[in-house]
Amino acid sequence: MSLLIGGEELGWLGEGSRLFASGAAESSYNLSRDWAGAVVGAGVTLVAPEELLPGTLCVAISLMGSTTALGEQLPGGEEPARAVRALERRLGERAGAVTALNLAAENALIPFIAAAELGLPMIDGDGSGRVFPLVEQTTYALGGMSPTPLALAGASGELIVMETAPDRVEELLRPVVLSVGGWAVAACYPMTAGDLARVLVPGTVSLLLRAGVPGAPRSVAAPYGVRTLCRGRIQAVEGSTRLGSELALPSSPSSIVLQETEGLRRLVRLEAHNEIVLALADGAAVAMAPDQICLISMTDGMVVDVDKAEPGLKVEVMVLKAAPVWHTERGLALGGLRAFGIPL
Amino acid sequence: MNPVRGSGWAAPVTVAELVNAGPLAGARMYGTGERPVHQVRIVDRLSVFAAVAPHTAVVLIGAAASGGWAVEMAMRRAWEQAAACVIAPSSGLSEGSGEVLADRLGVTLLFVDEDPLILAVRVASAASRPEAARTQLVARCATRLADAGASARRVLGVLNAELPGTSVTLLDRYGRYLAGRQSVGGPAGDFTTAGRWAAEVEVLDQEGAVLGTLVAGGSSRSPGWPAVVRTVLGLAVAPLTAWAAQERLRVARDFALQSSLAERLLNEAAAEESEPGAAATGQATGPADLEAAGSGVAGPGVGGPRVGGSVEAGSAEVVTGPSAGERGGASTGGASTGGVFTGGTSTRGVATGGVSTGGVSTGGASMKSTSIGGASIAGADVGVVGLDDGGGGVDADGVGVDSVGGMDADRQGGVRVEAVALGWPVQGTMTGYHIRPVGPVGDAPLAQALITAAVGQVPVLPRSAGWAGWAALDPGRLAARVERCLQTMPWPCAGGVGAPVEGLPAVGESLLGAEAAAFVAGPGTVARADRMGPAELLGALPAGVLRAPAEVVLRPLLEIDKDGTLLGTLAAVLEEGGALKAAERLGVHRNTVTTRLERIKSAGFDLDDTATRLALQLACHVVLR
Known about the structure:
The complex is a heterodimer.
Chain A lengths: L2 E3 L1 H12 L7 H14 L4 E4 L9 E9 L1 H6 L6 H13 L5 E4 L5 H13 L3 E5 L12 H4 L7 E4 L5 E4 L6 H11 L3 E10 H7 L1 E2 L1 H8 L14 E14 L13 E8 L6 E7 L1 E7 L2 E14 L16 E7 L8 H7 L9
Parallel strand pairs in A: 2-5, 3-4, 4-5
Antiparallel strand pairs in A: 1-2, 3-8, 5-9, 6-7, 6-8, 10-11, 10-15, 11-12, 12-13, 13-14, 14-15
Helix pairs in contact in A: 1-5, 1-9, 2-5, 4-5
Chain B lengths: L14 H7 L6 E3 L8 E5 L12 E5 L7 H13 L4 E5 L6 H10 L2 E5 L3 H13 L1 H19 L3 H11 L3 E7 L4 E4 L16 E8 L5 E9 L6 H50 L86 E2 L49 E2 H8 L7 E9 L6 H12 L5 E3 L2 E6 L3 H14 L4 E10 L4 H14 L5 E3 L5 H6 L3 H18 L4 H12 L2 H8 L3 H13 L7 H15 L1
Parallel strand pairs in B: 2-3, 3-4, 4-5, 15-16
Antiparallel strand pairs in B: 1-5, 6-7, 6-9, 8-9, 10-11, 12-14, 12-15, 13-14
Helix pairs in contact in B: 2-3, 5-6, 5-7, 6-7, 7-8, 7-9, 9-10, 13-17, 14-15, 14-16, 14-17, 15-16
């Protein structure tokens, strides 16, 4: 039972993709939405991988690098298509569907653009169920899929095809993305529809479509459950010097301290490294990666980025339970606290 | 109690004590630090906490100190294990949230700059031998107190520096702050509440009377600490007693000096006023009419040395008589008047602001001579117009009056110069004040200190069981300052402010007004002579004292006046000045008043006699008030 994403559904998808997405710059999000709106045409078919022939080549599409850079260095428009075509040339095989690496804001829209441009269906699901900062932090990788070969298209016509051991992708990718202008569209994790059906977090795109409908509760976007950890006011944002700052993560560790404004009035500390990975309440750990910890502004209901958190802000701290696969031993190793440098 | 082995000396050291006076000195402590420390445990990862025993000082290193989150989790675990405290290296950690959490969990958190491993060893040593650590502290305090000498400020400085976490204040016997940390404040009883402790030691003066109290307080609940503090306070008593003795001598001397100076100043001014020559104030008659910068004191020895010309000096009331110019060419132009110049007695010259002053001849011991001599600037015969060989000079601003050669000239007028040096007003508009203690009299030097603190640099004279003086302020501002002064006085006092007058000679008059006003004023309030009217005078009547005689005077009337009608009528008639107006005030017919007056007269009062009327009106006022 495939679903067609047209103009209206695209709006819902956009809204839904932002409900728990941090790190999305407003300008780049607006740009991506307009870009998607420009290419939506007759719409994109949303399919479950099981609906495809098991041997169909599926390709994951994602934005790499900085969303802020995307807002500043505008795309030419054909980056997603070029990346997919390059990967197809490398593999000698046509892609039959496009899937998402994760569904946070731009990363939900860029695969949609690729699907619309190439006239391919989009898979209803993604490789994360939430968002992680690294290319290899996906359920695809957990399922044994390799992110490479990987094709990268930059805004000035650059095209890079990369082939390396899975654990070196991030290391090689980062300087390349930086040198092409701070962002690029990647086509990666080439796999068959049969494999994809096994490793993806299913149904997440249609979930966001439902969550993005005006008036839908935010919790619809969290398939495995969401809870409010606390509501409070940010007291301080500190740079953190903890171990693990040498880890290959895009941003530096920081720490957000807030005081609960209700209930026990606990002191809540949120350790962030690219995203919030650990929440302490009065020194006791109350939430941690791989579950996703989100700051939602109590004034406008928008997700507050870690680097936008500032003292005085009133926020709600929400915890989204990660897909079960993240709570397995391998999942914890890839997306748990230690992956973020916290030796717990 | 053996002062060095008081109870509590062998009690386990608390965290606060380690910080206050032990190996953790200089650490930033959050939390009360009240738990005793029995042992030390170095923790490099949080899992070690499972083996931490109660009353352990936990020293965080490595991964366990690798971020705010780690410290917070350590505090949580320390709380669960009932540890004594958590010690973390301060490098790079923010302390704000630790403070909040220390408060929330009741776990003391310490941030240290030194190597935590070295500190751990020292803490372990202090924890195992608490008595030795305390004795060491007392010994250090004794040495530093000996170095501090007899100065309250330095002694209190030593106490507060060596007993951190403890605030020490020296209060006088009225409980007011003298030295040390203001925050302790108030009598000791004020802060023994809510887990705080206090120690106090009386400081006696050289005669064995209570001089004040050393009060120490803190929030630490260490059982041993107050005993240590008391011992150290005891060490500070002797230097404080010595300090007080010195200070008291100096202050008593200073007070005597300034009050006698003020008396002399007033006497001179009064004498000057009464001199015939002085009448010329404001009318320059001397041949050399020298004016010194508008306000200066000038007294040139004018051309006619024995002419007796008076010379106006600015607006001041300075008058010179015949010059004493012959005196070695060095004498001033100041002149003796009335032939009382004696010249022989010198008073001190006072130098102010680098301008040599003081060389003004005074009348010597008699102090009747009134002239203020202007003195020459550099010596005799310096080019000041109209000088005779006596060489009077003119000073520029009326403050620095230069003595001629600084030798024998500092006689008359030195009083005024000293007064100027003290910052007292000596000319222009000034206003007298009077402060009257309502109860028993306190000590004068203290009163002077309080008065000058509140009013400014003014003389303080002992006057009719109170203190008086004058200031160059208008009555309104002076009254405000005097009122502020009354609030700081340890004894209840009333204040009075006189009318503003021009020049020192008239100050006596203003002082009288101030005294009268102070008599009228109630405790804590200030009355102004220039605002005093009949109402204030009546209000000042000692009604309590007069009531009995008043009732005697009025008895014949009261006996026939059952309901008070006649008394009221009498009062109305006397106050309104006639039966007609009294009837209006009482709301009765005139004839009614007349009838009542007849009854009053029949009681034996002759209302036509003015003395009787006054006595009756006074009596009515007192009785009806």
